[in-house]
TrEMBL record:
Residues 42-46 are annotated as: G2. Residues 156-158 are annotated as: G5. Monomer. GO terms for biological process: ribosomal small subunit assembly. This is GTPase Era. Residues 63-66 are annotated as: G3. Residues 208-285 form the KH type-2 domain. InterPro entries: G_ERA_dom, GTP-bd, GTPase_Era-like, KH_dom-like_a/b, KH_dom_type_2, KH_sf_prok-type, P-loop_NTPase, Small_GTP-bd. GO terms for cellular component: cytosol; plasma membrane. The gene is era. GTP binds at residues 16-23, 63-67, 127-130. It is a peripheral membrane protein. Belongs to the TRAFAC class TrmE-Era-EngA-EngB-Septin-like GTPase superfamily. Era GTPase family.
Length: 305
């Protein structure tokens, strides 16, 4: 970073059909240091996937669930969350798979883009270019740009790394000027907190009724290293309705107890040391909204200012 360049920071929402390559791209952008890999399909909600530094810019990649044609109520809720993520982000990048081209799903997303707030910056990234020939790529680029006025078009292969640096550099100059939202030295620490929260969420998913886990958020609130080499981890499970509290706790607290034990075992295995895990259940209505979203995503604005 040069002394003169102003710092910049912003949220980048990656949207696209399931399998478009959002996770692969995030991991590429962010680099091994802070990437988080989860293999679950369509279980991600707007949450931070990783933080990338490019020069004086900090790019916070927000993962959204794949945008797909909503059929069930749950699907609709998830698609809504995906669009919510895009509307709140500073920049949205639409990922389209080169070899699949203009699918119905892509058309539906293009329709949805039209409803984003005016002034939202949307870039197009045609991914998996390693799978198609140039003429087809050009035709697709043209068709997509006729359908929507993208700020910029990139041709990339997230897997092979083609075009990823150009996209990252463009994003770096496109996010607003402002202080970094994460102090640089905290970036490396962030994924551990998120991985630990994700592990608890996974256990909740296994133990609760199908739809409930999507309405839960798990946050790691505190992480304390102890002298004996163990870690004390405090997490909060946020429920969106009061009635869900009891379900998460279970009869005589049995559900949360078994979640806690299983999550602790996973985290211990991951860290290779002893962990004391403390879980709390709290009510948070409208978790998708405004300020609350930031803390849900692990951000603390006190740190950012
Ligand atoms: N050939 C090729 N395959 C890719 C490329 N990018 C991603 N893939 C593959 O596409 C598949 C889906 O990639 P993901 O990154 O998991 O896609 P996603 O959009 O995060 O998927 P969801 O979380 O299900 O929405 C994986 O098998 C990747 O290896 C690419 O540039 N070229």
């Amino acid at each position: 970073m040069t002394d003169t360049a102003p710092t910049r920071a912003g949220f980048v929402a990656l949207i696209g059909e399931p399998n478009a390559g959002k996770s692969t791209l995030t991991n590429r952008m962010v680099g091994a240091k802070v990437s988080i890999v989860t293999h679950k399909v369509q279980t991600t909600r707007a949450r931070i996937r990783g933080v990338a530094m490019e020069g004086a810019s900090q790019l916070i990649f927000v993962d959204t669930p794949g945008l797909f044609k909503p059929r069930r109520r749950l699907d609709r809720a998830m698609v809504k969350a995906a669009w919510g993520g895009a509307a709140d982000a500073d920049i949205t990048v639409l990922l389209v798979e080169a070899h699949r081209g203009m699918t119905d799903g892509v058309r539906a997303i293009l329709d949805g883009l039209a409803d984003l707030p005016r002034g939202t910056t949307v870039a197009l990234a045609i991914n998996k270019i390693d799978r198609v020939e140039a003429p087809r790529l050009l035709a697709l680029t043209q068709a997509l740009n006729e359908a929507y006025a993208f700020a910029e078009t990139f041709m990339i292969s997230a897997e092979k790394g083609h075009g990823v640096v150009q996209l990252r550099k463009w994003l770096a100059q496109a996010v607003p000027e402002g202080p970094w939202l994460y102090p640089e030295d905290q970036i490396a620490d962030l994924p551990m907190r998120m991985i630990a929260a994700e592990m608890t969420r996974e256990k909740l998913t296994l133990r609760l009724h199908q739809e409930l886990p999507y309405q839960l958020t798990v946050e790691t609130e505190a992480w304390q290293e102890r002298d004996d080499g163990s870690a004390r981890i405090d997490q909060v499970i946020y429920v969106s309705r009061d009635g869900h509290k009891g379900i998460v706790l279970g009869h005589k607290g049995e559900t949360i107890k078994s979640v806690s034990q299983a999550a602790r075992a996973d985290i211990e295995e991951f860290l290779g040391r002893k962990v004391h895990l403390f879980l709390q259940v709290k009510l948070r209505e409208n978790w998708l909204e405004e300020a609350e979203r930031y803390s849900e995503m692990g951000l603390d604005f006190k740190d950012g200012n």
